[in-house]
Specification:
The complex is a heterodimer of chains A (216) and B (83). By secondary structure, chain A is mostly helical. Chain A folds into two domains: 1-103, Rna Polymerase Sigma Factor, Chain: A, CATH 1.10.1740.10; 113-216, Winged helix-like DNA-binding domain superfamily/Winged helix DNA-binding domain (Arc Repressor Mutant, subunit A, Orthogonal Bundle), CATH 1.10.10.10. Chain A contains ten helices and no strands. Chain B is mainly α. Chain B is built from four helices and no strands. Chain B is elongated. The N and C termini of chain B lie far apart (65 Å). Classes of the chains: A mainly alpha (216), B mainly alpha (83). Chains A and B meet through α3, α4, α6, α7 and α8 of A and α1, α3 and α4 of B.
């Protein structure tokens, strides 16, 4: 999107987020709106992937931006605006998930659930090189559908760890804190999520001619 | 190191946080093990794809609703003198 004064004329460089944040902190609504335009899709996509529901994702996206307006003055800029915003959206989405489960506590751990162990994780089965690079694949609509489909097949507890750690880039500790889990549980869940997604994607994206024909 | 043992260090290896001694062992194993090489490559590509793809467009009408709500909130939040 182009907004003349904020996104700049065609020959001038795009204003960095940090500068827009400074302008917004000084009261510039158009600067804030430019930030929203830049990051609304990322926030919505994260919420949608976490919640697997369109209406909840809209609510969470809106809440996240409203909260950003409210707390902008206190945003210390130790992280980028995008990281800060996505953290707000993540916590809002987790709140919705806890509410769905009727949980008031921080932990998403089910009391009866035993910790997972590496030994119980299925080994890779379909092993083959992919036919195309991620750069080529990401442009295709079929890929987007495939990514959503694979993500939707994961258990929520594995999906959330993968999204927070690998997509949002939280550390293991940050992921553990956000989900109320122990770090070792985060690591095992992440491994299971990565392997399951790899398996699903490789069955579609793998080149059968390079397939290594045995479980591994 | 055997293939069965690779799962225990796979995460850390992919993240580049594996202990250097284990890393060396793992790489030595991978030199002679094509399946393990392919699995590591597949996982790295899987993560790259998910990171790169902002898969969803905003639903029709949502962008307007969002921006209207934000303008309203902005008005409430900003002292008039700073506008």
């Amino acid at each position: 999107m182009k907004s003349a004064s904020i996104e700049g004329e065609t020959e001038s460089p795009v204003i960095p987020d940090a500068q827009l944040v400074a302008l917004a902190k000084a009261g510039g609504l158009s600067a804030f709106e430019a930030l929203v335009h830049r990051h609304e899709r990322a926030a919505y996509s994260l919420a949608r992937r976490m919640l697997q529901n369109e209406q909840d994702a809209e609510d969470v996206t809106q809440q996240a931006f409203l909260s950003a307006v409210e707390h902008l003055a206190g945003f210390r800029e130790t992280a980028s605006f995008k990281t800060w915003l996505l953290r707000i959206a993540t916590h809002a989405a987790l709140k919705v998930i806890r509410k769905r489960k009727g949980l008031d506590t921080v932990s998403l751990e089910e009391a009866t659930e035993e910790s997972e162990h590496v030994d119980s994780i299925p080994h890779p089965e379909y092993i083959a090189d992919w036919r195309q690079s991620p750069e080529q694949l990401v442009e295709r609509n079929e890929t987007r559908r495939l990514l959503d489909e694979a993500l939707a097949l994961l258990d929520e507890k594995h999906r959330l760890v993968f999204l927070l750690r690998d997509v949002e880039g939280m550390s293991v500790k940050e992921t553990a804190d956000a989900l109320g889990l122990g770090e070792s549980n985060v690591k095992v869940r992440l491994l299971r999520a990565r392997l399951q997604l790899r398996e699903h994607l490789t069955r579609t994206l793998g080149d059968p001619q390079t397939r290594i024909g045995r479980g591994h | 190191m055997k293939c069965e043992e690779m799962l225990a260090v796979l995460n850390e290896y992919v993240d580049g946080t594996v202990d250097p001694t284990l890393c060396e062992e793992f790489e030595k194993h991978m030199e002679g093990c094509n399946p393990c090489q392919v699995v590591v490559d597949n996982i790295r590509k899987t993560i790259t794809l998910y990171k790169a793809g902002e898969t969803y467009e905003l639903p029709i009408g949502f962008r307007d609703r969002l921006h209207n709500a934000l303008r309203e909130k902005w008005k409430q939040n900003q002292p008039p003198a700073t506008k």
